[in-house]
Amino acid sequence: MLDESERRSRLLGIKLRALVRDHIGSESDGEISTFGLGAALLANDATFVLIEGDASKALGPALSWAMQRSEAPLHILADRDTAILARRAQYFNHPISVWHIADRVLLPAVAEPFANRSEPLSAHLAFIGLIAQAGAEVVIEHGVVTGEVQGLEICRVVDDDYTGESRLEVGMGAHDREAFAMIHGQLPTEKALRNVIEAVSTHRSVGADPHPLNMFGAERLMRAQVIAKPSSVGFVHAEAAEPPVQRTNLKDAVPCVAIAVGAQGQRYVVTLAHGIDLDVVPFALDAWQHLEPTALPAVILREQDVVKPTERLALNATTSVQIIAFRAA
Q1: For 99-146, how does the pLDDT look when each residue is reduced to its tens digit (9 = 90+)?
Q2: Please, are residues 46 and 25 in contact by the beta-carbon 8 Å criterion?
Q3: Which string of b and e fits 256-285 if b means at least 16 CB within 10 Å?
Q4: How far apart are CA 79 and CA 195, in angstroms?
Q5: Which H/E stretch holds residue 141?
Q6: Quick one: which of 141, 125, 149, 99 has its CA closest to 287?
Q7: Which end of the chain offers a freer environment for a tag, N or C, measured as fewer CB atoms within 10 Å?
């Protein structure tokens, strides 16, 4: 008897074969294969991958899977995030088509342009001095002003839902900031910030024992270390930059971005990731195009996270992506 995952996999395979047969006009009698994010079909003339659910990080895994098996064109089918997939698919030499599933119909996905750059409100910028004075690093991404300690967000400027007044809230994420205000609301903001910075700094230092405060944002900790010592990865300068899409929460591991300058003055858009992430190259190319397409794209990974599929994706890009090994100082 099939378990739930096997039954789901079989149903996705049936769905994929039917969509290919009815809408793409390609051979649909190829072999259905198990694919971690959905289902895949290998035909003589093409490779088809069906993504179930969130597809925003699926391009790298799908392209890596396809390139290991065939040089034939890759077709990616999904019902979410297809506009982002279509934009990122353009960065590779391997022929890729992205299809949006609307009920039982397939539509060619249209590449989504980057959103207009968001500038912080002047009322929010007024808190930069306070954040810096307390000892946190000021980070601005997609118009949001935050303070970080070794890559961990510990405060954010927000607007009150009722009064519209801007204020600086202390804590990691919305729930933590709300809880902090309930418990420590009587503390002056700078004193509250200094207390948090002192507590967080101990756990975000190199060699610190495992702790919840160094489990989050490991890639941003890497960025903070590169900014503090850019020569460790061959740069003379590095500074934080915003990612191509806005981060929606602090718990999920999401690559972060920096602008760096090499020894000969060459500029780089650098993406940093912690852990094996097969989608880091598409993300890095998106960041490069979003921020500074006249610069060079690069990825910084820990040595143990540099795997063959990632290297193949970097070489297949229309502009090769340099992979730089990171070693903690």
Answers
A1: 999 988 899 999 999 988 899 999 999 999 999 999 999 999 999 999
A2: no
A3: bbbbbbeeeeeebbbbbbbeebbbbbbbbb
A4: 46
A5: strand 137-141
A6: 141
A7: N
Q: Report the distance separating Cα 168 and Cα 309, nearest Å.
A: 43
Both tokens of residue 50?
Answer: 């069906």
User: Is residue 101 within 8 Å of 19, Cβ to Cβ?
Assistant: yes
Q: What residues pair up with 235 in beta bridges, in sequence order? A: 262
Residues 272, 54 contacting (CB under 8 angstroms)? no
CA angle 126, 127, 130 (to 5 degrees): 125
Task: Determine the residue type at 188.
Answer: P
The 10 Å Cβ neighbour count of residue 209 is 7
Dist CA 130 CA 151 (whole Å): 18
Please name the residues in contact with 210: beta carbons below 8 A apart, sequence gap of 6 or more: none
Distance from the Cα of residue 60 to its chain's centroid: 12
More confident residue, 173 or 264: 264
Element spanning 183, H or E: helix 173-184
DSSP bridge pairs for 262: 235
